[in-house]
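ingest -> fold -> write
write: protein_1
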Amino acid sequence: MTSEAPRPSNGSYHHGNLRHALIAQGRLELEKMGPQELSLRNLARAVGVSEAAPSRHFAGKAGLLAAIAADGFGELACIRARITNSGDDALTVAYRMMDAYVDFAREHKGLFNLMVGPRIVARDAYPELSSRSAESFNAFARAVEEYARECGWQKEALPFVVHGAWAMEHGLATLILSERVPRLEMPIAIDSIVHFSISMFLHAVAAGPARLEALLNATSTAPKGWEDASAGGGGCGGN
């Protein structure tokens, strides 16, 4: 697994690297068009091979798209592995995990839309896609869980915190890509929106489960199962 896709050239490709060349070219084309318009025939021409050659590596266009998406998740997993191994404190690692997801989406809009969108229907049919997606998500989840535990959240509450963090990073990414933020009447820099939103979420984690439980009780909106998940913990130092 590499942290960035190989770059195609205009030359011919031998059997050993044709798959990588097609994935790389596919990633480039996705930034210009949607997955519906992506064509195996055109990709083959672009990398200088016969129109039949891609069939040796992919089970049709669906297989190619799944491989491209897997490559994207592999790159994101590498980014998150570097964050995990950075030696930063738990808060910084959790912040960087969420920020990296939004950055990746902004830098690879076409690829990201394929990775998370509806175009690939039977995702479980592609083991590489499933494993690389899980690798990326699990690195993110572990980082969020570690910070949450530092702030007093019990084991039963961690799935709630992880899903909240996931909703935050994914919501930011998709709103930005769809050009729905910032609002026209609220001209705020996108980088500032990202920083504030992630920081605000992590501050809520730092406040601890007791503070959230009080809020949920006051509004009568405690989710099912929260009673067991909210026990213990007063938040990170001083909050």
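write: protein_2
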Amino acid sequence: MRSLISTLPGRVGTVLAVALLVAWSLGPIYWSLVTSLTPPLNLLGAPSLWPQQITFEHYAKLFGATSMSQGNAVQSVWPQFSAALANSLITSILATVVTVAIAAFGAYAFVRLEFPGRDLLFVAVVATLAIPAYTVMIPLYRLMISLKLIDTYTGITLIYVSAFLPLALWLMRSVYQAMPISLEEAAWLDGAGRIYTLVYIVLPLAAPGLIASAILTFLNAWGQFMVPLVFSPTLATKPLTVLIPEFVTRNYIDFGLMNASGILAIIPPVLLVLFLNRYLVSGLMAGATK
């Protein structure tokens, strides 16, 4: 009985800490959901934890329906929203695929191959993580203009890869260093080449690291704002992170539309993390049993 009482304050503290963390993490998302379901006129009144009247007109405006607001027809923003959504998906997926592919092969070279300046080169690459993005924005912009890569998927993808590749390299290098070389040596004795060994033996074992790199890269690319704000001036490549703030006009801020767009923008990265997390956990369990 005494032990139960003595641990009660600790348990209460743990519950309160977890509740505070959950509220801090999910509170803004919940508030965005409530705002997206609130009629425009009610948004001008006192805030409430749940809308007195639920409306889907903000979502209808996003998905192509013409809604009525204060007796006036409000045109849908689906053409702009769908284009920005496609741009976010394309640039994020391209950056993820290219970054993970380069990191998978590049990190292996930094671990298993011997060449002059290997460690120095790796440190120099990873050290670029400490460089603030705004310090290279102007020279990078001039370079993209000279290469005619402004407002193109290629240009945005290259910028994302250059920004996220050092972290993926560092992560994959740690994964390869933790793997025993005996498996590769056994494959080499059987006549397998280095590329074959990497693709069919090493990479399957390094799947958790690859998945973690993919998740980090996709989330970072999806949430980018400053880079596409400068290098994606039109809807040809403009992502959701840049389009949503444009719902703020000179005379009116469409809070409901902005929050509805934000709720929908959360769905793709959440689905990706949930999907890849299954393979991440299974890969970790498989590696633990080997």
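write: annotation protein_2
Confidence is low (pLDDT under 50) at residues 283-290.
The radius of gyration is 24 Å.
pipeline exit 0
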